[in-house]
Amino acid sequence: MWCCITQDNQDTELTVAASHVLPQGIDVGKLEDRPEFIYPDGSSYVGQWNGSKREGTGIQVWKDGERYTGGWMADQFHGNGRFEHQNGDFYEGEFDAGAAHGKGTYQQIGGAKYVGEWQQDQKHGFGEEAWPDGTRYSGYYVRGEKSGYGELLWADGSSYRGGFLKKQIHGEGEYIWADGRRFQGQWVANQMHGAGTFNWPDGRSYKGEYYYDKKQGEGAFEWSDGRRYTGQWKDGQQHGKGIFRKADGQSLSEVWGFQARGFGLN
Prior knowledge:
Elements: E1 32-38, E2 44-50, E3 53-61, E4 67-73, E5 76-84, E6 90-96, E7 99-107, E8 113-119, E9 122-130, E10 136-142, E11 145-153, E12 159-165, E13 168-176, E14 182-188, E15 191-199, E16 205-211, E17 214-222, E18 228-234, E19 237-245, E20 251-256
Antiparallel strand pairs: 1-2, 2-3, 3-4, 4-5, 5-6, 6-7, 7-8, 8-9, 9-10, 10-11, 11-12, 12-13, 13-14, 14-15, 15-16, 16-17, 17-18, 18-19, 19-20
């Protein structure tokens, strides 16, 4: 049985489709169609054999209702096939040596769906995933996790385009909130971390350094009316040396601390 199938599947009537292509490398002349074979555990197989091994195309049904229909080689799923769980989830696509490998679709009964590349039973390579609430992901996976470049669109209108690492936003990327806020820059473990630019819908902007979602280091904050602060930050506030330029162009050079006046940084 496919090693990574952990859920069960509905017991629906299936037949070996005539359109199934025999797996490459099979000697067709050695294949033999036989009557249904019942195993001691109650599972059954009907299809083609090569000597004592299932090979060619066939259907295996397990006692718990799980079912595989498709290509076989040396007693393992191989080539194109479909594996169905007892609860209705299914994988349909390419197999190699008993595992999902190549291109395929995994459909969950709840509506979530993945279409893309697989390697040894794991999402690996390029793929697209969609959820019932409208959330969608298009990008790369490594050993079952989002890694590399990807685009994630949430149901509320928020979006992210950029790097991922082990399912988390990581590296260079742009996040746009549903209310119009926008950050373009560096990320670590789902947090703004490193250099970046944050823009607000009302015209305010910040360009500089972040430390785990907070302004920290060197950065410049500009208001829509022309005011501007350029200098040092800590824990999201002006802290250290900086220059504040008024709307009329006059500049003040001061040292800021946590208790010093702020300038409406929201």
